[in-house]
Design goal:
Elements lengths: L1 H16 L7 H6 L6 H8 L2 H7 L6 H13 L11 E3 L6 H16 L5 H9 E5 L2 H15 L6 E3 L9 E6 L11 H10 L10 H11 L1 E12 L9 H8 L6 E6 L1 H5 L1 H4 L2 E3 L1
Parallel strand pairs: 1-2, 1-4, 2-3, 4-5, 5-6
Antiparallel strand pairs: 6-7
Helix pairs in contact: 1-8, 5-6, 6-7
The structure holds S-adenosylmethionine.
The site of S-adenosylmethionine has 25 residues, from helix 6 and strand 2.
């Protein structure tokens, strides 16, 4: 079933890239997709695969909350070319929510073809999971009728690029999962924050902060564990040394997810 789903996603994606605009209706109907394609993908993915990729997609309520926070600090009139990236975009939930809100701002700012503009200049994504990249691109096509080439299948930790806003939910992978040459490379590149039992998300936080333009902002949904983990000392120090408004972390916790409105912890370190 999983293979059949991915084969269909791949075939639709290839059509898109060849400028042969596919109709998604049959696909959406066949797989009973009423919400998002990413959601169905997540359900079909085996738990093991999720562990390997550190991928648990963020609940919509949290995505909305974070995108609203992000938007509050934006002056779209001042900078209609603001660059927003989700460095580990998964099913594209953050990017799609950001797209919808930015189109409204672009309209208000009198931009011509606001949808096209936002997609071309404002929204960027990375993921190492090629299925996630295909799904996000299809999802955006389904929503806008436009094909974006800004969603890339690449390891964000090894990319260059500067952004005004980094938003998302980085992958969590402990030392038991990360092994071999890749781990050694991370230890070398991210030596201030990634040692011993440190988590991959710490590399994402550092890399994201380093990718921010002057005045840029990081908004991440992440594990509370970072606040007290012994091997989180390096990343805590790194965050502490940033300007106050530069880093916002929203912490996940099971109770928090259940009673969203009451228990969101929002911290500007
Ligand atoms: C926790 S999920 C979050 C997905 C999405 N941002 C969301 O919140 O719904 C993490 C994602 O990170 C991706 N990932 C893992 N390592 C990565 C890397 N080095 N570069 C880019 N993406 C990566 C996984 O494939 C997965 O889709």
């Amino acid at each position: 079933m999983f293979k059949e789903f991915i084969d269909e996603v791949k075939s639709l994606y290839e059509k898109l890239l060849n400028n042969d605009r596919p109709f998604l209706d049959d696909f959406l109907k066949k797989w009973n997709i009423e919400g998002s394609i990413g959601e169905v993908y997540q359900n079909l993915c085996k738990k093991e695969l999720k562990k390997e990729m550190g991928s648990f997609y963020t609940p919509y309520e949290i995505v909305d909350f974070m995108v609203d926070e992000m938007i509050k600090g934006l002056d779209y009139w001042e900078n209609p070319f603001v660059k927003i990236v989700d460095p580990s975009c998964g099913g594209g939930y953050f990017l799609i929510a950001a797209f919808k809100k930015l189109v409204v701002l672009a309209e208000e700012a009198g931009i011509e073809n606001p949808g096209e503009h936002v997609l071309k200049y404002n929204i960027y994504g990375y993921d190492i999971d090629e299925n996630a990249v295909m799904i996000t691109t299809l999802e955006i096509f389904n929503l806008t009728g436009q094909v974006t080439r800004n969603i890339r299948c690449q390891d964000f930790l090894m990319t260059d690029g500067e952004f005004d806003i980094v938003i998302g939910n980085p992958p969590y992978m402990g030392h038991k999962v990360l092994k071999g040459e890749y781990r050694e490379k991370l230890c070398e590149i991210f030596q201030d924050v990634f040692q011993d039992k440190a988590d991959l998300s710490y590399c994402f936080i550092k890399k994201s902060i380093d990718s921010l333009k002057v005045g840029g902002r990081l908004v991440f949904f992440t594990s509370r564990y970072i606040l007290e983990a012994l091997h989180g000392k390096g990343i805590r120090e790194y965050i502490k040394n940033q300007d106050k408004s530069r880093v916002s972390l929203i912490f996940m916790e099971s109770e928090l997810l259940k009673e969203l409105e009451l228990t969101i912890l929002y911290l500007n370190l």
